[in-house]
Amino acid sequence: MNDPWKNARRPSSRPPRATPLPPREGGTPPPPGRGNDELRLYGWNAVQALFAKRPQALRKLYLVESLIPRMQPVLKWCVANRVGYRVVEEGDLNKLAATTHHEGLVADVLRAPVLPLAQWLAELGEGPALALWLDGVGNPHNFGAILRSAAHFGAKALLLPASSTLALSGAAARVAEGGAESVPLVQLPEDAEAMAQLRAAGFGLAATLVEGGDDVFRASLPARLVYVMGAESEGMDRGLASQCDLQVSIPGSGAVESLNVASATAVLLAQWASRRVK
Fold it and tell me: I want to staple 102 with a disulfide (CB 3.0 to 4.6 A). Which of 52, 97, 223, 230 is the partner?
């Protein structure tokens, strides 16, 4: 098999020139092999946030020629740090990203580590804090929208149940618009142990129900709070909800059954944040 990086830009002592590399014979380079520790990002904000927060995680970069001027700081960093990049056509990026929503930029990067709950709590510090426990959320676009809202309102983490297989995807990172680099993912132990550790750290747990909970706009919410968010279709597991310290719902007009999980999360985050504003 031909090496897709045979003609990639090689590091040099000079800054990169704003000219595309000649295309590889045979068309689009095949996607390089990526293990579970790597992720293919696409979209301007997702890639720029990665570079701002974790430039050392960048492994390979593809871009269209028109982005070369805007990408000069990143390209110069690639040259200095021996990271390959390649100028390709729009159609090549469509294939690499498996979508047209790449905004001219695709990057292969190392995933940020998923933290154990005990480590996250030890590093959290004192004071008000909000986290989201995702009970069954699986849709990547909802996951990305939740990450974006969580970053906007300053949530400290997304908590993933012990049985969860949810992981950041390129689609979720693009929808998050850079938020994936600001909100860590935390792996929980089994439910009972996770609740015990969170309560010991001063957190109250609020189950979020479509109906039957206290009005979230009137409820007394603790300064250290975990909202437990249910799955897109089934909602929260009732057994888990009954183990939480309070149950809240978002009141509405009744014109629709409920908000989807991403929209509901944004409302809940805004309500908590509004009470922290001095």
Answer: 97
The pair of structure tokens assigned to 112 is 């940020």
Structure tokens at 24: 């590889």
Q: What are phi and psi of 228, to 5 degrees?
A: -100, 115
> Can you say how many angstroms the Cα of residue 76 is from the centroid of all Cα atoms in its chain?
26
Rounded (10°) CA dihedral 7, 4, 100, 262: -120
Its sign, for the CA torsion 255, 256, 260, 261, is positive
Helix axis angle for 72-80 and 44-53, nearest 10°, is 50
User: Does the pTM exceed 0.85?
Assistant: no
pLDDT in tens, 214-237: 999 999 999 999 999 987 766 778
Residue 185's nearest CA partner among 39, 66, 84 is 39
14-72 pLDDT, tens digit each: 334 433 333 333 333 334 444 578 999 999 999 999 999 999 999 999 999 999 999 99
